[in-house]
Amino acid sequence: MSDINSNIPEGELTQKWTKFKSSVALVNPSNKRSIEVIVVGSGLAGASAAATLAEMGYKVKCFCFQDSPRRAHSIAAQGGINAAKNYQNDGDSTYRLFYDTIKGGDYRAREANVHRLAEVSTNIIDQCVAQGVPLAREYGGLLDNRSFGGTQVQRTFYAAGQTGQQLLLGAYSALERQIGMGKVEMYTRHEMLEVVKIDGKARGIIARNLITGQLERHFGHAVVLGTGGYGNVFYLSTNAMGSNVTAAWKAHKQGAYFANPCYTQIHPTCIPVSGDHQSKLTLMSESLRNDGRIWVPKKKDDNRKPTDIPEDERDYYLERRYPAFGNLVPRDVASRAAKERCDAGYGVGASKLAVYLDFKANTERYGKIEASKAGNHNPDKETCMRLGTAVIKEKYGNLFDMYAQITGENPYETPMRIYPAVHYTMGGLWVDYNLMTSVPGLYCTGEANFSDHGANRLGASALMQGLADGYFVLPYTIGAYLSKEISVKAIPTDHPAFVEAEAKAKGILDTLINIKGTKSVDHFHKRLGLIMWDKCGMSRSEQGLKQAIEEIRALRAEFWRDVRVPGTSDELNTELEKAGRVADFIELGELMCIDALNRNESCGGHFREEYQTEEGEALRDDVNYAYVAAWEFKEGVNFELHKEELKFENIKVAQRSYK
Amino acid sequence: MSTGNMNLTLKVWRQKNNKTAGALVDYKVTDISPDMSFLEMFDVLNEQLINKGEEPVVFDHDCREGICGMCSMFINGRPHGPKDLVTTCQLHMRSFKDGDTIVVEPWRAAAFPVVKDLAVDRSAFDRVIAAGGFISVNTGNAQDANSLPIPKMQADAAFEAAACIGCGACVATCKNASAMLFVSAKISQLALLPQGQPERYRRVQSMVAQMDSEGFGNCTNTGACEAECPKGISLENIARMNRDFASAKFISEETV
Ligand SMILES: Cc1cc2nc3c(=O)[nH]c(=O)nc-3n(C[C@H](O)[C@H](O)[C@H](O)COP(=O)(O)OP(=O)(O)OC[C@H]3O[C@@H](n4cnc5c(N)ncnc54)[C@H](O)[C@@H]3O)c2cc1C
Ligand code: SF4
Ligand code: FES
């Protein structure tokens, strides 16, 4: 069924990567010095790749749109990073991490990639600790672990609720070291607007200097995109305000296939929407589900304060429905269960679109342990709560502070109110085993590619994937391509392909400025978000998706007729930046609906109302849909489907069960 | 889901670019909800300006969660506004009253030139890190992470120093525009860890040299930086850096 080649090496699953590494062609040091690589993105995926490639001797240029590479959205990741270290001696192994990831992804990821990810996961932790990343430790001085959803072992490493920050600052320091040595040229406040192709190969980019507005041409023997996810297509998401799909989308329009765009992750534990002014949603890390119990009142429209509702009038619905995994079921399952309760009328809070996340029971339990450590084996309740609160504070202090800051409520005293929100996108540019897109010489890493998480990503696996790609995978696999490029001299940027690409980028900017319509960019973005959330969000139907496609097409036409972008293109113009991104989101939104409509099954984060079991669980169709949907962009805004068949040779495909 | 009922007067710094002079301009915003963040209040202002055909106010922001360090407004004479331990994006309008006048300016420091309106250039911080804010270990050289146990207290202290978000509020609030709190946080993080020891003294020398060459001022121990730091970075870090800097001189003289 496949009509695309994923270039997976031959051989037994556990040997593929080792064999690949020892047989891949190398580039000798003197050649590396004259080979230039462009890395777009300075998040975990981009910074780690840029630093490592420079360490290896390549000439690297790195780009980001923020004012410093340290501010990439990876900085906001909270809960942790997985690795199959088995430090807890609880039966973890490379195979188990591989298995959990494939199963968590609802059997829609590529075995060979995921196994490689599990293999290199342990190197990541070693590397980060060597860089001075202060991961959490136990009193004995060894690294601590916690649990995340979809697993029954403790394999998640963390730094309080700031794991992404600490890992990114580690990668950033490695990157700055190379910048200081002159091996990486860093371009901050630059936005990539086009991929330049010469003779079918990626040979550079057009980037806009966001301060001066000037378009710049940059040559590279290869181009790597580590430009993050596209969750902001929904307007409201847990992503940073600037997160966007533009780099990936421009690459898509140059021939890079876009894979599984409809696989979106809706995270179960976020702070609910408080009003129309809302500009983004804030995640409360999944790690909280280690110690927080999720419930709603058993009675509809129960308006009592949560602390006044007695135990036997609470419905701990995850523990009830999924006794084996309880509050730690995977995200897609937890989100749908929350929606189900709220839709059925049991939601809480002013909007009734929220459920409780309650720490009381575990606070008390920790308090008891602390008291008994101090020799008090019969502590009263108050002592337990006091001591337990200190434990909770140490584990999640910054998250509790953030919650209090945003809602004005004290989560140490009353349960948090939470609701699902758009969080992560499993879909992305299609890449082969080498992380190369369907455009030769164009690579894609991190959240921007589609590779490892199937239809649902497990918690603490994105940080793992971003760093695996950047530190340990791409630096090897790119050699396979670059070893054949050593005779290619740097191509001067007055080459017609650069001229043409720049003219195209300029044309779009000029058009946007000159529409001089009546509605702001945000106006269109919010409307797009609403269509996506209602019809391509937590649950989807054939009818809804068809409607959404019509609505999005109409919105696109209206946008290009009536958007208002003040100012000019030769200055710092944040509205112009947003306009370009929203234009791309609108096209992507349509493709997401087309993909969701094409996939007549439910799997992971993609839930089609027509395809569910009697208990309301996702119903896969492995006979007809065990494939990666890779879409090719066609003139106008049209898309052609290519299929990569997924073969499961090492795992028995089964209905997922967390009961 | 109500819109709010606060009406405010804003005095906002407008400056086209680093070549032109700037000035405070008055704006009115109405129906502000106490649940809005300060930046969401600015979204309302900007939407209003765009609808009137004027140019919106440029300000830096990204995560809106208090972690990326990008937001940077000097509000009523204080970086990140009136509340302690929060960034501008985590400041909510419930910290203000109906009828208030709020003055909003960019960070002001010679080493942080204004880019436009409220956005400034903080690349000097990156250059200080590039001068030595790292451990020199290439990818692939690491030993097993647990082969080097680190006492929890020490690891926690390093983590606290590492929590700096590089926002620059410490510089903005300091009458000398000193960057000592920022620089000492990174130096402390690495000095507290065994991995950081081999380069400890070289690091402090090169980072301090870079800091001086960027045009940051001297530290006169007023403590304003610690008071305004949204992440509670402690002055102890500055003391540690000063000690290391003094030892570094001594050590390098000895080895000459
Ligand atoms: C709130 C939150 C919490 C999370 N917590 C966890 C967690 O605990 N564990 C976990 O594993 N995962 C977590 N995730 C997911 C994880 O953080 C992300 O998937 C991951 O960090 C993405 O890294 P990245 O390097 O691919 O992209 P990013 O970090 O988003 O970096 C993208 C980079 O690309 C640049 N860029 C983008 N477009 C352009 C352009 N056109 N031109 C130039 N530059 C461009 C940006 O400037 C930036 O440098 C969390 C996500 C969120 C939103
Ligand atoms: S020390 Fe504090 S105020 Fe200074 S940059 Fe770091 S976080 Fe900001
Ligand atoms: S916007 Fe990121 S810290 Fe304020």
TrEMBL record, chain A:
Similarity remark: Belongs to the FAD-dependent oxidoreductase 2 family. FRD/SDH subfamily.
Name of the protein: succinate dehydrogenase
Catalysed reactions listed for this entry: a quinone + succinate = fumarate + a quinol
Enzyme active site: R331
Organism: Pedobacter yonginense
Keyword entries, A-Z: Cell membrane, Electron transport, FAD, Flavoprotein, Membrane, Oxidoreductase, Transport
One Gene Ontology cellular component annotation held by this UniProt entry: plasma membrane
EC number: 1.3.5.1
Subcellular location: Cell membrane
Gene Ontology molecular-function annotations: electron transfer activity; flavin adenine dinucleotide binding; succinate dehydrogenase (quinone) activity
Domain FAD-dependent oxidoreductase 2 FAD-binding span(s) in chain numbering: 37-463
Superkingdom of the source species: Bacteria
Coiled coil: none
Predominant location category: membrane
GO terms, biological process: anaerobic respiration
Fumarate reductase/succinate dehydrogenase flavoprotein-like C-terminal domain boundaries: 525-658
Membrane-related topology note: Peripheral membrane protein
Cofactor: FAD
Pfam family, one: Succ_DH_flav_C
Automatic annotation (TrEMBL), chain B:
Biological process terms in GO annotation: aerobic respiration; respiratory electron transport chain
Molecular function in Gene Ontology: 2 iron, 2 sulfur cluster binding; electron transfer activity
Required co-factors: [3Fe-4S] cluster; [2Fe-2S] cluster
InterPro entries found in the cross-reference section: 2Fe-2S_ferredoxin-like_sf, 2Fe2S_fd_BS, 4Fe4S_Fe-S-bd, Beta-grasp_dom_sf, Helical_ferredxn, SDH/FRD_Iron-Sulfur, Succ_DH/fum_Rdtase_N
Domain of life: Bacteria
4Fe-4S ferredoxin-type domain residues: 155-185
Family: Belongs to the succinate dehydrogenase/fumarate reductase iron-sulfur protein family.
Entries under PANTHER family matching the protein: SUCCINATE DEHYDROGENASE, SUCCINATE DEHYDROGENASE IRON-SULFUR PROTEIN
Protein name: Succinate dehydrogenase/fumarate reductase iron-sulfur subunit
Species of the source: Pedobacter yonginense
